[in-house]
Give the backbone structure.
Amino acid sequence: MQLRIKLKDLKIGKIDAKNELIDESESSIQQFKKSYVIPPTIDIEPFLKKEVYFVTGLKGAGKTALLRFISLELEEKYNHYSRFFLFKSEFDEDIKKEFSKLQSKNKTHAELHENNDLEDEDSYKSYWRWFIYKKIIEFQNENSHIEIFQKNSDWSKFVDLVDSINEEKKSFKRFFPKLKRGRVVVNKNPTIEAEFEPRDSTIIEIEFSDLINSIDNKFERLIAGSDCLNLFFDELELSHFKNKQYEKDARLIRDLIKTIEKINNISRKKGFSIFIYSAVRSEVQHALSVSGMEINKSLTDFGMPIVWHRSGVNEEQQPILNVITKKLAHQLQCELVEVWEKYFPKKIQEQIPQKYILHNSWYRPRDIVRFLILAQKEYPNEESFKQNIFDNIKKKYSEESWMELQEELRAKYSGEEVELIRKIFYGFKANFTLSDLSSRIQELLPYYPELKLFENKNTIKLIEDLYRIGFIGNSYWDNHLKSHKYRFSFRGDTDVLLDKSFYIHQALRNYLSSTNS
């Protein structure tokens, strides 16, 4: 093994996986691939064979890293091309607001949109198809040596229709067409003339639904070329900051999922060289489902969940730990076990380091990376992770953990409601019952009348939501096992037991100043 280096020089990884390959250099790519750990619930082959194309999991579970790994495997093994779209980063609020104003097929639906009411049928699927068609054309035009589709007369007609939308009327970086009462302004060209028989004007208005139907028909007539393009959609997130925008974002995501399924089905049926993958957060999946937006069948039939916890496996053998140790072992040119022996103490708070780190995480790579990077930043010149380092960063890590969980909560609760939840648990005891929580809310009502929102049945709903994101778990004595039992959703115990005691996650207690009484 090499001489021990300082913590600041250890390559632990990035909290956000997309930053691991930000420079796209060959060395970064090779380092990522060699140190990547495939989640235990994931079989890569069905993704490469295009049998599945959705990845689901909690925030920070490694969905982005998995998509990047899949793209690299497809590029290396099959010479495919990749293009990524980040819903959260690239589709900013102005773009999404403009997108949500797009009118549907007729005047009545257009008026509904203008009143901020959204119809259930076909709200945004047409617009997503147009977006994807546009990106396919842009990619093939920008790379003249690449042929995703044969450049024959059918391709020319397809391009004519997609590109017919008037350039001057396009808005917001050309992401979406500009519509007025369900109609779109297009430039006359031979294909437009053949399809719609316009009269004299060089610029005409037609129903967008008619245009997209014609584009759909032309798309299915295309012939696959010799190259393959894979599109990846990531960061499909919801924010409850503004209720109306939340509902629109939810429909945007729902219809993107449906559009991906539709285009992939066409591609497989026609033998096309275009395929689409997407990551979907568990909280988004849940929020859409409880809102009546049926996507579970699509995600179940064509997706795989990322779950790291393995029941019946000792802490030191949990596969998620390899996310860190494999990176460090690759850097230090040593065995995995040597990483623990040389860079971690034998015990942290009377626990082996693997157990201590896992119990301060939600069994997600992001938590472990964040924990160790914080230690690295606070003690850059130390030569190992010592117990006093973890003792001294507990408060900061706890605060950051709360910030992470806030984002989970905001998929369902507004910012004001999340702050009320924080007030409920700030200074509250770490172990409590449903009755204790109800009493706590009543005690705080004179100071925060808004807490009436969480009374009675809503108290149960709050418990269920907090359990689902890992804010709390169950903690109780099991008479059958003659031992204390701990249950958390991220360990595979899906449903909360309302008749048992609850337990605030260990990593949150320092920030919330929770007591054990």
